[in-house]
Each structure stands twice: as structure tokens, then as C-alpha cells.
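Anyone up for a design puzzle?
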């Protein structure tokens, strides 16, 4: 829905990361009201599988007041580059891991006031190349391997976990055995 709105709306602010669009919307009573939407370029997030573990990271950025838990993620709006290639680049840059076994797990839906699509990939059979290339001035990343059960606990209960797009699925898996088994199979392919 928001893609159609962006086409007819007027950009009123261009930021480094976010753009703001406004449009006149006819109301049910025939009057008009100005509506607004924030727009951000597409992003990718990756759940790296290393053997029977999931790779997570502790991240710090200069503008954050605390270290946050995360999965590798980054922008994906490079002209002519498929999102899977952006995901592979982000995984290598942030963690030093590569994979030849990728699946697209989910895509976020657009909300009514925010346009920020995120594709979440699962990278199975990850191998450490020993070569990372994070944005040294803008991010500090420490990786860690956790079990599936620990991953769910961290995503569900650690308030610093930043990839909110996967939280609902992890909550379902944490509290429902059937969803637990389904999600584990999706992640590990077993």
C-alpha cells in the first residue's frame, strides 16, 4: 500500500537515511487531511547458521548509549544488485562468514506510516573466512555462537535485541512446541 502512496505523495524532507512524504487524503465526510509517511531504503537481515549454532552479534554504534544484540543487517537498495548479494556482502563484512546455502525466510510488510521493507535471509552452512570489514568508524561488532534455544531466549527477552522484524516469530516458537519445531526446521533445514 505505501508504495502507491509514495508515487502520489510529495517529498517534503530528504534526509540521509529517511525521507518524509505528505499527501492530501480525502476523509469519509468529504473533507481533506494531510497525511505523512516516513520512507527508508530497503534493508536485509541475516540469520547465519554455523553447524548447530546461530551466529549473533553484539553491536555498538557511536550514537547508541548501550551495546545491542543483533543479527547481521544492512542496507539493500543498490541499483542492479539483488538483495541476496547485499545480504552476502553484509554477512561477510560484519562477521567474516560466507555461505552457499541461502533462503529468503520472510519480508516485512509495510505499515501505514512507515515504509522500510526488510528481507530476512537464512544463511546455512556458514564458514568463517577470518576476514571482516565492518565500518570501523561507525560500528564495533563482536560475534558469538548460540544454540537455537538460547537464540530464542535472547530475541524474546533481551530488550537490547534490535532486529524487531523477527521477534514475533521467535515469541511464537518460544511458547508453542509446534512453532518451535517449524522454526528450527526453517533455520537448520532438518
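Challenge accepted. My sequence:
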Amino acid at each position: 500500500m505505501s508504495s502507491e502512496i509514495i508515487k502520489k505523495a510529495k517529498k517534503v524532507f530528504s534526509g540521509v537515511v529517511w525521507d518524509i512524504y505528505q499527501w492530501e487524503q480525502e476523509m469519509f465526510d468529504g473533507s481533506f487531511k494531510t497525511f505523512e509517511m516516513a520512507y527508508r531504503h530497503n534493508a536485509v537481515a541475516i540469520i547465519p547458521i554455523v553447524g548447530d549454532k546461530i551466529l549473533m552479534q553484539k553491536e555498538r554504534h557511536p550514537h547508541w548509549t548501550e551495546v545491542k544484540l543483533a543479527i547481521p543487517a544492512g542496507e539493500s537498495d543498490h541499483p542492479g544488485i539483488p538483495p541476496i548479494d547485499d545480504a552476502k556482502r553484509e554477512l561477510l563484512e560484519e562477521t567474516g562468514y560466507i555461505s552457499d546455502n541461502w533462503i529468503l525466510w520472510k519480508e516485512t510488510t509495510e505499515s501505514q506510516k512507515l515504509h522500510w521493507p526488510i528481507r530476512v535471509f537464512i544463511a546455512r552452512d556458514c564458514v568463517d573466512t577470518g576476514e571482516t570489514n565492518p565500518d570501523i568508524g561507525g560500528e564495533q561488532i563482536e560475534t558469538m555462537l548460540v544454540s537455537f534455544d538460547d537464540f530464542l531466549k535472547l530475541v524474546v527477552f533481551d530488550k537490547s535485541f534490535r532486529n524487531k522484524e523477527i521477534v514475533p516469530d521467535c515469541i511464537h516458537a518460544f511458547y508453542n512446541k509446534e512453532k518451535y519445531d517449524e522454526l528450527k526446521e526453517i533455520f537448520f533445514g532438518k
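A detail worth pointing out: The first strand starts at residue 10 and ends at 14.
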